[in-house]
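Thread: quick sanity check before group meeting

JM: Hey all, I'm pulling together slides for Thursday and realized we never actually wrote out the predicted structure for the chain we discussed last week. Dropping the sequence here so it's in one place. If anyone has concerns about the input, flag it before I start.
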Amino acid sequence: MSRNIQLPPEIIELIFSFCDCATLKVLKSVDCDWRSLIETLIQKRCSRNIPDLDLLEYKYKFSKDGTKLENICENWENWQDIVNNIEFENVSFIYEKKYISCVAVFNDYVAVGLDTGAVHLYNQTEDLLKQFEALVQREPQSIKFVPGFLLSEEPFALLVEYTLVTCIHDFSQEYQSNVFDHQQVFTAYKSYICGVALDGTVTIAQIYKDEDENTKNQQIMLKILKLVKLQVLITNNIFASLSSDKCMILSDDKVFAINYKDENNNIEGIATEIASLDFAMNSVPVLWRDALIFYDKVIITNSQPRADTGQIFEVFLLENAINGIVSSVKRFYLTEVFESLITCLYLYGSTLILGFANGEVLFYEVHDFQSLDLKKYSKLITMFTKLGRILSIDVIESCGKREFYVAGPTFVRKITGKLRIK
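JM (edit): ok, ran it. Output follows.
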């Protein structure tokens, strides 16, 4: 009896739809027809399950050894169930004699910000590759890589944010650095940067390399795309986020949106107030606040209204605005939940990570923010006690694993989450 049973492609695709991505990767090697069918199926699955903006972020964070959709989809599927699918390894990565303030990763590179203002660049084997000298004598608050035209290329530039100043370094160190100053808050997306000045002026620009007409020196340049004036008082409680076409700004309780890639080429842009957030104790001046803006969808805040109150963690869904007011769908008084203070917020797709003053790191699966319960974490990682409070977290992906780089005052540790062998 012949074993070659020919089934219609739609029937084969239906059968394959019950397979996870790891199984589909194996089945691709059967023949060319199956390979083509499975690649189409994976593309459909990614489009259906992973939001478009999340997919862009995953591609940016995927190391150069493979940005195929099948690898992104496999990792995404596994991290939907951290408890059952993922096992963790916590190892020391870098020790610095100087105080560490932040960390960032891209492909094979790990950038570490020091209290001297300098940034040290390492590879994955902890070799010091180069140093970016401090243009200001302050500790960096954040570091961001600007990717090349192809994600597999070396980075185009390195952005180092300090208080009120952001330094833009040429990654090859062949071009002179530039400074983006007098900015109360700063954010970036690929080669686009955004800063909000103390007078409320929002500047959105694109980074490029050219020769200065006056000095004839080759240096990093900025092309201004939009200038917008916010009609609000700028305080320390201002946050911004940049995506592929939109800038989101949270100033105290006001949320603004700026489309910086509109069809007209007018530099003067418009900031549209889209909502006001109804914080707990909204009438009380806030001593301190941290916030994550997830596109134009979700805002997560951690606030301390007064010295005699604990931290308050809140989640706002912007689509829930009623007459321009958004109430939090989740609110936690953290003294009732944790014994330590949250010192770092990090959101990567559907994975929320909280870093604490006692060196602990908690991982959460967030499929629906309305059902988030901070008491029900998926994984707790405890650092060495001398690591101290968690200051900064960044992630890089590769086939079958995610590597989280966690910075404390004197250490950077690497937490690797990989597929559990069952």
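AS: nice. DSSP finds six helices and 28 strands in the chain. The chain has two domains: 9-77, 80-419.
JM: adding both to the slides.
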